[in-house]
Specification:
globular, 8-stranded parallel beta sheet, TIM Barrel
Length: 314
Amino acid sequence: MVVIEARGSKPSSDLGYVNSHLHLIGMPPPWLYRTPSFSNDPDYALTDLDKAIEEARVFLRSGGQSALDATTRDYGRSPKAIHYVLQKVPELNLILVTGFNRGIYLNEWYYEATVDKIAELFVKEITEGIDDTTLRAGAIKIGADYMRILPIEHKCINAAIQAHLATKAPIVVHTTLGTQAVEILDLLEKQGVDPRKVVFFHVDRNLDPWYWEEVAARGAYLVLDQVGKIKYAPECRRVEFMLEMVSRGYEDQILLGTDFARRSDFISYGGGPGLGYLFEKFVPFARKIFSKRGYEEKVVEKFVKENPQRAFEI
């Protein structure tokens, strides 16, 4: 089986160790950047290419080999910038996304375009290239608002379903604060999407094993991608959740990521903990706790190797 890495198809086994959610380059849309929720905060502006290169090298030195960069067109994705970064750090495998993040970021093009036209764009970015580059997307991102799915999100989700059925690319899902996962999976499955090709982000913003079992029982993947963000929950709660889900039989469906998307997250910008954290700190911590609970260390290895390799296959 293969994945579509930014520069082309490759065997999924070549991915090695994977961070299943990060952002190297990104910028909120200009109109949103002026709203109170962003308050012109420069922390959100990941625009320095040299610092992106430096952070990518931090990631590689930690033992990471591959990552899914979930930055979408509506959140300042820059394929030319990513192309430059990959030229400087060619050993990094980067899976890019087409699709969208969530409705509040979408501009008037999405409102005016038909579902077919949006789907056509998503398919082009997977099969041909993004914008005027040869970089290809390897996954389709969709998302929903907190505790609801906006009309524009329904429209773009329908376009993403069309693109998935045409390309078989996996679907990755932004869930605002870990909500609407069941409802989104219902929509996808009703229109012919195999839940085993769906990957949910932000699971650890809602550490409710009963809720997420409703999703995992149908075959979808769960990404704990707030690793390193102690402001949302202590790491022990993430590990306890992982242990609970493994005890329920879902060890083959758990993935890990960091979703770092601010300057203050990156060592290269003077912040932290940086992209080395997942493999230098969290994975060893999780292995230690799993071992104390009687599990072999290879169970945790699945979360950053075998599972993401399988989840992002086409």
